[in-house]
Design a protein that fits this description.
The chain has 88 residues and is α+β, with helices and mostly antiparallel strands. The protein has one domain (7-87). Helix content is 20%, strand content 32%. It has 2 helices and 5 strands, in the order E-H-E-E-E-E-H. It has helices at 20-29, 80-87; strands at residues 7-8, 38-43, 46-52, 54-59, 62-68. Strands 1-3-2 form a 3-stranded mixed beta sheet, with no helix packed on it. Strands 4-5 form a two-stranded antiparallel sheet. The longest helix has 10 residues, at 20-29. It is globular and about 40 Å long. It starts with 6 loop residues before the first strand and ends with a helix. 1% of the residues are buried.
């Protein structure tokens, strides 16, 4: 049986600045992260940063309004999946 639980780490353990959360919040408050609904950063199989935000979303051509996103929130990805696969 596989362990489906993600291991956690702090940013410093993953080789990033220990104040990553504070830097992210500063960027969010400054408005430099428009249309970002969620960020999950993983290194060496461990999540070291995870944030979800509220923002506008739509299902096909129907606006859903402002949605508070979270790890279990379904999200209409449209063609972003092709971009991510192309990047990989």
């Amino acid at each position: 049986m596989m362990d489906s639980e993600w291991k956690l780490a702090n940013p410093a353990e993953a080789g990033f600045a220990p104040d990553l959360a504070e830097r992210f919040e500063i960027a969010r408050e400054a408005g430099t992260l428009p249309n970002v609904h969620g960020v999950v950063a993983v290194r060496a199989g461990r999540i070291f940063f995870e944030r979800y935000l509220a923002g506008p979303d739509r299902a096909r051509a129907r606006p859903l309004g402002i949605v508070r996103f979270g790890p279990d929130t379904l999200h209409d990805l449209r063609s972003v999946t092709k971009s991510v696969v192309g990047l990989l």
